[in-house]
Amino acid sequence: QVELVESGGGSVQVGGSLRLSCVHSKPMHTMGCMAWFRQAAGDEREAVAVIDNDGKAVYADSVKGRFTISQDNAVNTLYLQMFSLKVEDTAMYYCAADPSGHLYSGGYCLTHGMTGPTTFGSWGRGTQVTVSS
User: Fold this and answer.
1) Residue 74: per-residue pLDDT
2) Rounded distance, CA 22 to CA 36, Å?
3) Tell me: the pLDDT tens digits for 3-28?
4) Cα torsion through 56, 97, 109, 113, rounded to 10
5) Three-class SS of residue 17?
């Protein structure tokens, strides 16, 4: 298992920006695959962005061109930079990781990672993002 602690959420107006952080207790190279998910009230948890140990990333269509996922190995921190925020981006944002390393070693991180929350075994508690008009 790995401990994940998110921060950086808050309330912003439409068009604003936020950067979410997720400090993880295991180095990225021991896991290989991490992601950001979000869950709006009444909705299912959905994948926002996934990144692998090579720095390759994929994004949900709804956030492409506005969000960037990145990893700083020096401080064991995953980031989600969010620009041009919309009201529909309002949700609880969760950091997720595959502590087993199987997704990356099997070559499935960027494909299976976007399929749903059951792909990942470790989760943070979330950080709330609220975008108002």
Assistant:
1) 96
2) 9
3) 999 999 999 999 999 999 999 999 99
4) -100
5) coil
